[in-house]
Design a protein that fits this description.
Elements lengths: L2 H5 L4 H6 L2 H24 L1 H8 L5 H17 L1 H14 L2 H21 L3 H4 L2 H29 L7 H30 L1 H8 L1 H19 L5 H8 L7 H6 L2 H36 L4 H15 L1 H13 L1 H27 L15 H19 L2 H8 L5 H17 L2 H12 L7 H17 L13 H4 L1
Length: about 475
């Protein structure tokens, strides 16, 4: 659809809903690959710690790796600002084409990076730089993909259609775990620890090229084109998003009343659970990854279930319910994980003997269900919160601060608290506190916008 089509009176409803599944597939493929790239690092944290940091202090090396992992999250808000502005001024499609190439290049480069034994401190410095590039790219990717799909979705079904984008983060983690497991089992443990860990990073270049050619064929979103044609586009989306008191208030509500709590629930259920199994309960690497991978696979359809349900009963109810239940049940869930792991408190460094894999998978599955409740509806919630001319910028910043800063720090803070206190449940204090604070703020300030209409005869109402 071109701008001239819009000016000549093309029906935005028809344009938006035609080929919606093609739009979703093209957007999801690229987003899934970017999440895959981003999460390989986290999935291999214990091995990367041995490759890129001095040996002899395993806990310090792991914390250093987790801190490097966290920098990729912390820098995501800057990527949201840079690419959000590009997306609101130049176009949604152009912005997330660029982010895809940056992410793919940085991930492939990690697979080629020399180790600490080869180049000394240049190894962790190079790793940090590439991780920063990954964070910048992902900071621009998600907002573009979510906005792009939402602006193609018919009114009343934005929660359903955008929920497919929401599955890509979990599927990206699942694919990363799958590739890692296949590579490790195929090469053997010693070879994998020596050089085989590079294979999942190098595979990225093939996936990125494939996704790039798919995305290149996509057209711009009809809402964006209509906005540009009507002269309503913002020339300074950063100023309009954060200097305008009304929009600035919405950004803060989105952060502290939704994405902050959503972020910690997401990373507790999908990343902290993995670290906890490996580093605290001493479940072996392969078994821990299989447990998380199966839990993710079984729970992924519920992103769509809760996204669709949010179209009928509202985004707020589902998201805040997920945060509340998570905060109230994390402690008993992790007590259960300790019990079923076979962890021996008298020998805390010993490998867990005969862990109950089925029950551990069930407990991790429950945590991922909480993730689907808070994450399934949030894309629709964010895109509906802001007008089209600043949507990409305004929704991206609170999303990436909530997920990148508050959520991304969960593994690091949790592991550090356990190491500092000696109490292996103390790592849960951080996500529980953040989730409960978000619930209180969200209950007071969030208003439902699921019934907002984008596709009416009036241009003002359509935007």
């Amino acid at each position: 659809m071109s701008v001239s089509d819009t000016k000549s009176g093309a029906n935005p409803i028809k344009e938006a809903t035609q080929g919606i599944w093609k739009v979703i597939m093209a957007s999801s493929a690229g987003t899934l690959i970017e999440w895959y790239d981003f999460y390989i690092f986290g999935s291999l944290a214990t091995i990367i710690a041995a490759q890129f940091f001095p040996k002899g202090h395993e806990t310090v090396a792991l914390l250093s790796t987790l801190a490097t992992f966290a920098t990729g999250f912390v820098v995501r808000p800057f990527g949201a600002l840079i690419f959000g502005r590009i997306g609101d001024v130049v176009g949604r499609k152009y912005a997330f084409m660029v982010t895809l190439l940056i992410m793919g290049g940085a991930t492939t480069a990690i697979g080629l990076l020399p180790t600490y034994e080869q180049v000394g401190m240049f190894a962790p410095l190079g790793l940090l730089l590439l991780r920063l590039l990954q964070g910048l790219a992902l900071g621009g990717e998600y907002g573009g993909a979510a906005t792009y799909v939402a602006e193609h979705s018919p009114d009343g079904k934005r929660g359903y259609y955008t929920s497919f984008i929401q599955t890509t983060a979990t599927l990206g983690l699942f694919v990363s775990l799958g590739v890692i497991l296949v590579t490790r089992l195929g090469l053997g443990e010693d070879v994998f620890k020596d050089w085989g860990w590079r294979v999942p990073f190098l595979i990225s270049v093939v996936l990125v090229i494939f996704s790039f050619f798919i995305r290149r064929k996509m057209s711009e979103s009809p809402v964006f084109q209509k906005m540009k044609a009507s002269g309503k586009a913002s020339s300074s989306p950063l100023r309009d998003s954060f200097m305008n008191p009304v929009n600035r208030k919405m950004v803060l509500i989105a952060l502290f009343g939704a994405t902050m709590g959503q972020g910690v629930v997401w990373y507790t259920g999908q990343f902290y659970a993995l670290y906890y199994l490996q580093t605290v309960l001493k479940v072996d690497f392969v078994t821990a990854n299989i447990i998380i991978a199966v839990a993710l696979l079984l729970a992924t359809p519920f992103f769509v279930v809760f996204g669709s349900l949010s179209d009928r009963i509202g985004r707020k109810k589902i998201m805040l319910a997920g945060m509340t239940i998570a905060a109230l049940t994390y402690y008993p869930i992790y007590k259960g994980m300790e019990f079923f792991s076979g962890w021996n408190s008298a020998m805390p460094d010993a490998t867990a003997v005969n862990p109950n894999v089925v029950m551990l998978t069930v407990l991790c599955f429950i945590q991922v269900i909480y993730v689907t409740m808070v994450y399934g509806p949030i894309a629709a919630f964010l895109v509906e919160l802001f007008p089209a001319n600043i949507r990409y910028t305004s929704m991206s910043l609170p999303y990436h601060i909530g997920n990148g800063v508050f959520g991304g720090l969960v593994p690091f803070i949790g592991t550090a608290l356990v190491a500092y206190t000696g109490n292996h449940f103390s790592g849960l204090m951080y996500p529980i506190a953040i989730a409960l604070i978000t619930v209180v703020i969200g209950m007071i300030y969030i208003k439902e916008d699921r019934n907002v209409k984008w596709f009416k005869d009036s241009s003002d109402e359509a935007l």
